[in-house]
Amino acid sequence: MWIPDSKGVYPDLLATSGDYLRLWRAGEPDTRLECVLNNNKNSDFCAPLTSFDWNEVDLNLVGTSSIDTTCTIWGLETSQPLGRVNLVSGHVKTQLIAHDKEVYDIAFSRAGGGRDMFASVGADGSVRMFDLRHLEHSTIIYEDPAHTPLLRLAWNKQDPNYLATVAMDSCEVIILDVRVPCTPVARLSNHRACVNGIAWAPHSSCHICTAGDDHQALIWDIQQMPRPIEDPILAYTAAEGEVNQIQWGATQPDWIAICYKTACEILRV
């Protein structure tokens, strides 16, 4: 994930996760590793990270989720380069046990100024919302009735009351309203195989794109919620494989990118 620096103030930083969170600086003549953020200095082993998100309001905050049931919020520090000295370092601002089992995804919300609220999903089948100002408790937004693990979540880009999540091996996407916890306001269920990706429109509060193993990318108009959303308004079929991931262009909302097998396709909406 690139740093979400719309004003171009920060260096061109790129974050990746796997065993650890790594920050890279892209530039000429090369791209180099700035720092490895490791919260467990006392062991040669680590709990792999499952996802991360970069705060769009405070670019010094990055949140990670891990199979060890925790979420970690990292504080980044950037400084002026001195020769080959690294520009970026980081420290743990807070680490919390977020779920009863593995945490699979984390995402910051734009609610309340966009800095302090974030949500996570995990193998316990729940969506939980946290506030960095009040970490002594969390709010359970949704629990899957069968406790099926929830793999991904995504916040509505224009209306922070809504978020979407998808369960493991599920053909439907669940739309939640944080003002009405525990009850989905919509279920998008036209996929014929499990859903892999969800992406809200960057410019509209009522459009979302979903993609799955049925080779399809579907765009939905959800403005008639809470009435049932029967069918998508647009559909695209990738002829050669399951769609694994999807991105909706933040600065160019007429374009959606999908990937399947060894291919990446750019679709015009």
From TrEMBL:
Mapped WD repeat ranges: 188-223
SMART domains membership: WD40
PROSITE patterns from the UniProt entry: WD_REPEATS_1, WD_REPEATS_2
Chief place of localization: cytoplasm
Keyword Repeat: yes
GO cellular component: cytoplasm; nucleus
Highest taxon of source: Eukaryota
Any single Pfam family the record assigns to this protein: WD40
InterPro entries in the cross-refs: DCAF7-like (IPR045159), WD40/YVTN_repeat-like_dom_sf (IPR015943), WD40_repeat_CS (IPR019775), WD40_repeat_dom_sf (IPR036322), WD40_rpt (IPR001680)
Pathway: Protein modification; protein ubiquitination
Subcellular location: Cytoplasm; Nucleus
Keyword set, alphabetical order: Cytoplasm, Developmental protein, Nucleus, Repeat, Ubl conjugation pathway, WD repeat
Keyword Cytoplasm in record: yes
Family statement: Belongs to the WD repeat DCAF7 family.
PANTHER family according to UniProt: WD REPEAT CONTAINING PROTEIN
Name under which the protein is recorded: DDB1- and CUL4-associated factor 7
